[in-house]
Amino acid sequence: MSKRLLSTASLLALTAASPAFAQDGTEPVALDEVVVTAARTETPRSAIPATVQLIDAGEIVTQTALGASAVDLVATLSPSFSPTRQKLSGSGETLRGRSPLYLVDGVPQSTPLRDDSRDGYTIDPFFIDRVEVIFGSNAIQGIGATGGVVNYVTAAPGRNADGWDGRLLAQTSVDDSVFGDSLGWKLAAIGGRDFGDWDLTLGAAREDRGAFYDGEDRRIGMDGAQGEIQDSSSWSVFAKAGFEPSAGRRLELWVNHFELEGDGDYVTVPGDRATGVPTTSARGTPPGIQPLNDVTSAALTWRDRNVLGGTFRAQLFAHDYEGVFGGGTFGTFQDPAIAPRGTLFDQSANNSEKLGFKLDWERLVDPVPGLRLLAGLDGLRDTTFQALVLTDRMWVPETTYESLAPFVQLNQRLLDGRLNLSGGVRHESATLIVDDFTTLASYGSQQVDGGEPSFEETLYNVGATFELVDGLTAYGSFAQGFSMADVGRVLRGIDIPGQDVDTFLDVSPVISDNTEIGLEYRRGPFQASAAAFRSESDRGALLVMVGGVYEVQRQATKIEGLEVTARYDVTDALRVGGAYSHLDGRTDMDGDGALDSDLDGANIAPDRLLLWGEMDRGDFSLRLQGQHLFERSFDGGDPRNDFDGYTLLDAVGVWRASFGDVSLGVQNLLDEQYVSYFSDTQAPTDNGRFFAGRGRTLTLGVTRRF
């Protein structure tokens, strides 16, 4: 449920947790007991003026009972998040019309220097305790959050001193009409123990996914180039260890490894957009290495609550990522020196290695009652390259991004806490380091001189909240976020002789200004919120189809929207709620300074209505949830890309038996036949990527606690 909390550079907040759908046996958590770690400040939730949504443990269990991935959790429950492509690539999946920054316990998962949009699949949802979604452009966690922040908070440390406790999961999924190759399964376990001064948590998960079928029982087409979720296998391990030498001090180390790889059992069969026949798949073996994500993240964190009268936090983190894409005899890959033109098969792998640190110190300023100070310093080194793996050629040269960013945030409490003022500043100092390189033969084998272009950018935020009457709070804020504009795509495509990185490459960041006003009401069994926002960028970064390939273009953009949420606890056993989002986005396609065209489906989500109801009757629970995506046309775009909209309904039932919780999830309960939003609004002549969405799918699971 959306909470109106966070002003961008305010950094760690107490927020509200909507009561969990208690199928996992956990009790609802009181609002002010939950800390939003992605926000990095301990300012009370009533003092921070923007939007945070907390997806708690119960909601995660409910969605994973439907077979949801980590990114599906967010897309299903957040109305202004784009519907997922149901593919390994998340290209075009936006939050409020801009790219979100994915984090795992504060560690960035993105690859901004060569954005391949695979960052939604880096952790198994079984290891996630909650998801923190911070809406709107912000600089809380540094580069990448022009649309917001999605922080996956991992399992809490073991607290049982008498032995190990945890969960075991066995799950299977199948299309309701086509069994056979649609069958998938998952096994997972996680457990922890408290050994006194230190604690340990360990987890492992393995999942095999079958083929997906649409509402008309046709096998859904494979995206051989970008990668697939269907017909894939994944495995993941997770470990967390903590040491507490004294009260208020904790040292914690965690490591997560996630690997997902296609099984390679099918080849794509083109559809026919003109007649509405979607792309399908047939048995076959695609050539080359199968697409995969191979990700390892780790962080070492120290927290001390008694440093110069305040709390000091330090985190060192590392992130190692490889994403392999499917191959082909694409024109870009051709080199007559290796093979006759048109016959050379190759495929690429994107690689990114991050090292970074985050330091912050927070305390009350004693001479000024109600004033809280947060100061810190962030550092990041990100090295990225994209190689052609079969011929050992470099497509995107090794590129290193180095940055240091000091920041300060103030929060002033007035009128006994009814009025809260906040403001802050973050200064980003960054350098891009590129050595001399040679482009591929298809670009003319251009010799490009390296360089070290840099930028300095200062980002601001300011906001206020005011409790009008008991339970009703109004707020307003302005905050800035920034990102890079996929410099890898620019570097690899240089086809003009005599270029050098210092003069050719524009490293000026994408700066987005987010303005937001809203109201939140919480009293008794009823909760509601409404927020209106505007996000503007003089030089945004848009996905634009050029010659059959998406390129990033710098264009002015403006996005305006409205989000409304409501929840009513009818009785202790019955809850209902819903959310609605409306988005309008315009851009300057011809560079004349006027916002003359609508943002297309690759850059903005459709308007969406979410409705849900939950019933909990002792040993049995039931949740029904529906979403309606409204039709959308695009002024200035191809009318063949207009979106007709569709409605989906899901159901999850849970029986709490003596041996464990038995769940049955039914995705697309009415077996609706539809084409995914991204496929329906892009490339109107491409019959190879006209992908339908999944039809009715059953997921049966058993969870046992120990």
From TrEMBL:
Bilayer topology term: Multi-pass membrane protein
Q: Which SUPFAM superfamilies is this protein grouped with?
A: Porins
Subcellular localization, as worded in the UniProt entry: Cell outer membrane
One GO CC term on file: cell outer membrane
Superkingdom of the source species: Bacteria
Quote the CDD domains the UniProt record gives. ligand_gated_channel
Q: Is Transmembrane there in the keyword field? A: yes
The record's annotation in Gene3D superfamilies points to: TonB-dependent receptor, beta-barrel domain, TonB-dependent receptor, plug domain
Q: Which residues form the TonB-dependent receptor-like beta-barrel domain?
A: 264-669
The protein's UniProt keywords, in alphabetical order, are: Cell outer membrane, Membrane, Signal, TonB box, Transmembrane, Transmembrane beta strand, Transport
Family note: Belongs to the TonB-dependent receptor family.
Quote the protein name from its UniProt record.
Iron complex outermembrane recepter protein
User: What is the species listed in this Swiss-Prot or TrEMBL entry?
Assistant: Brevundimonas viscosa
